[in-house]
Amino acid sequence: MTNKFQTISPIDNSIYLERGYSSDKDITDTILRAQKAQREWRNTSIAERANYCLKAVELLVAKKDELGAEITHQMGRPIQYTAGEIEGFAERARYMISIAENKLQDIPIDEQVGFDRYIKREPLGIVLSISPWNYPYLTAVNSIIPAIMAGNVVILKPSAQAPLTAERIKQAFDDAKLPEGVFQYLYLDHSSSQKLIQNEAINYVAFTGSVQGGLAVQHAAQKRFINIGLELGGKDAAYVREDAELEKVVPNLVDGAFFNSGQSCCGIERIYVHSTLYTEFVERAIDIAKDYILGNPLDKGTTLGPMVRAKAAEFARDQIKEAVAGGAKACIDNVLFKQDKAGTSYMGPQIMIDVDHSMRIMSEESFAPLVGIMSVDSDGAAIEKINESEFGLTASVWTNDLESAVKIGDNINAGTFFMNRCDYLDPALAWSGFKNSGRGCTLSEVGYEQLTRPKSFHLRRSL
Fold first, then answer.
1. DSSP alpha helix (H) spans, 10-115
2. β-pairing, 268-274 with 329-330?
3. How far apart are CA 75 and CA 44, in angstroms?
4. Most buried of 216, 277, 310, 370 (most Cβ within 10 A)?
5. What is the pLDDT of residues 383-424, one digit of tens each?
6. pLDDT tens digits for 111-140?
7. In terms of domains, do 307 and 415 share one?
């Protein structure tokens, strides 16, 4: 096995960069630095931690255009959008920093004569953050900033498809004068990742990725009493009620399905439309989809870039072929998108109708610019279809009836339920999933509970 890896740009299949995997000595030294740093870092004030983190965020935002171009080269998102990921990083980071003082303070207990009693939120120690390529900064920030703010130290293992994320975050922290060892990164293959998870020095693992990856992380940690946060896949659904205003709804859902070439954990992959609106909805969606510009993501006019690799595009094309063979209809002729060719990473947007849940396209995560649309006759039917999935990350309803939306949401198996919105993480809300979409939670006040342990102080003042 080679001790190096290459990041192949999906733009033209060229080698964008090459890095060496971290050696056993690198890993050992990183752990030792982390352990030493954490002994001191845990005793710093939350205000001091906030100063370092806010400065690092400012430094990253100042380079957002440069970092955005790097994201485009590494994973293919059009350059007109990638700088926005750094803004999203900053939004989440600043929110989690802003609530840290309140959330991490001691929890007082009702007064008892002769006793002092309270619960402290203690840091866990070393947090291992394993981030994916599709939103390399947005996913990493969910664990890195709150972990550091809670008094932990962090080791980041980035995707080999987007390794520069780790280097740029490390540089920002270094420039912010964060003490050595509080944030580090390692380039690891699967075997080394498994060994690191099994290392007694690691106190928590935050993983974002596929279901298969999550199972591998869980298996690696099975003999250890540590918590694991798993943010995995989705087959996120939307329900368009009879009272929805299509001129507003359709553009939002098409964007939710096709942004980032559909390579979003919470992207829209299934749409259920009330039968009275179904035909018009499909027609409007097709018209919008045809206007996408598929091409080189470095061109400012491109609105749909390549998928991360040709294999991923072929996976989605196979889903389409199987669905068509089963009676479904592909609504968009790929001749409209000249770069959409078999064997390449470039795939145009596709809308499928006459689909059903026996087809992989409606049950298996596509992670592509591909969406299936079905007609339903009632709220109950929509709820049943949405819940008929192994996943439960997000779901949305599109309606002007708030009361009905809340009732529907109460019956949906998803970590986040939206009304008239989709494909967005509000950092004030808990980010979690049902079923195969994972377990644990990031962001919000609840996210800090994952990164600390409660320690009770029961103090009798005198014998």
1. 24-41, 46-62, 64-75, 79-103
2. unpaired
3. 37
4. 370
5. 999 999 999 999 999 999 999 999 999 999 999 999 999 999
6. 999 999 999 999 999 999 999 999 999 999
7. yes
